[in-house]
């Protein structure tokens, strides 16, 4: 699954440049890198600002499901768990 398909899966509109061209997956990676740096600096200068994070309990849930699954979990199935989609656990 490419990044744009993942956005659609979770009903997130793809970002576009001013000329209407959609961002590529590489553009999203660059944006992510810039945002990480921005949030790091922001958290240093603003005591009330917290860097967004993925819930550790959800990461543990993905890990447990991957270990217990008789068939390999796809990226989509792991993302469904992290995005709190209504799915049954795969055993």
Characterize the structure shown.
With 91 residues, this protein is mainly alpha-helical. It has 4 helices and no strands. The mean pLDDT is 84.
In short:
The chain is mainly alpha-helical. It has 4 helices and no strands. It has helices at 3-9, 25-45, 56-68, 75-82.
Distance between the termini: 22 Å
Instruction: Give the strand content.
Output: under 5%
The major pleated sheet works out as: none
Structural class: mainly alpha
| Count of alpha/pi helices | 4
Helix content: 40-55%
Instruction: List the helices and strands in order.
Output: HHHH
Enumerate the spans where pLDDT stays under 50 for 5 or more consecutive residues.
none
Sum up the structure in keywords.
91 residues
List the helices and strands and how they pair.
Elements: H1 3-9, H2 25-45, H3 56-68, H4 75-82
């Amino acid at each position: 699954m490419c990044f744009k398909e993942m956005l659609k899966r979770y009903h997130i509109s793809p970002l576009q440049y001013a000329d209407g061209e959609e961002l590529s997956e590489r553009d999203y990676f660059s944006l992510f890198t810039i945002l990480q740096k921005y949030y790091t600096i922001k958290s240093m200068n603003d005591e009330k600002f917290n860097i967004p994070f993925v819930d550790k309990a959800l990461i543990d849930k993905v890990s447990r499901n991957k270990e217990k699954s008789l068939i390999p979990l796809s990226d989509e199935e792991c993302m469904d768990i992290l995005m709190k989609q209504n799915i049954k656990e795969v055993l």
